[in-house]
From TrEMBL:
One of its GO terms (cellular component) is membrane. CDD domains: CE4_NodB_like_3. It comes from Pontibacter fetidus. This is Polysaccharide deacetylase family protein. Residues 17-200 form the NodB homology domain.
Length: 202
């Protein structure tokens, strides 16, 4: 996938023991505060790819994310599948989410926004149109925490095995992922913090 889609960010160049935790689909009151508590224990920073309608419903949690030194980023307003959405509708949906984000935290002039396509599904035309304004963030470690058939210990084991310096790791602060994420995240943080890694925003 990385070779087929070279215009996307799959990882950061490793300058040391740095990892980049990301959380998709929040913020929601049932799960996101737990994530913030775990990150705070390890002084870990993360990037939250937020669904616009969740931001609209729970702006107070978005402010908690920022207060913890984390970053907010765009994950469309309605968690759209790019492959099944017209170019115009997709771009409007992304912009709708970005408008809400900028009411919460104004962007610096000329700053490139961060965007992650839901499900990692985006057409070439959508990507080309967005790339002038956004850095398109993918991942090299997908925890699969949302997979109900995956046992929590297996979710953790696979995630640890795939992670290397500079990795961009995807967890989800969602109800669907809650069982596996609540098990895997604290242990993931403990494991890599014990090895001397730091967790930074993108």
């Amino acid at each position: 996938m990385k070779k087929l889609l070279p215009g996307y960010t799959w990882h950061r160049e490793a300058t040391g023991k740095n990892l980049y935790l990301t959380f998709d689909d929040g913020p929601i009151p049932e799960v996101t505060p737990f994530v913030l508590e775990q990150l705070a224990q390890y002084k870990a920073k993360a990037t939250f790819f937020c669904v616009g309608e969740n931001l609209e419903k729970h702006p107070e949690i978005a402010l908690q994310i920022l207060a913890g030194g984390h970053k907010l980023a765009n994950h469309t307003y309605n968690h759209l599948k790019g492959w099944q959405t017209s170019l115009e509708q997709y771009l409007q949906n992304v912009q709708q989410c970005q408008y809400i984000l900028q009411t919460i935290v104004p962007a610096a002039p000329q700053e490139k926004h961060l965007f992650r396509p839901p499900y990692g599904r985006i057409t070439g035309k959508q990507a080309t149109a967005l790339r002038t304004t956004y850095e398109l963030i993918m991942w090299d470690v997908l925890t699969n925490d949302y997979d109900a058939t995956l046992q929590p210990d297996q979710c953790l084991k696979q995630s640890i095995a795939k992670t290397q310096p500079g990795s961009i790791i995807v967890f989800h602060d969602s109800l669907k992922a809650e069982r596996n994420m609540r098990y895997a995240l604290p242990r993931f943080l403990e494991h890599f913090a014990g090895l001397g890694y730091t967790f930074e925003t993108l």
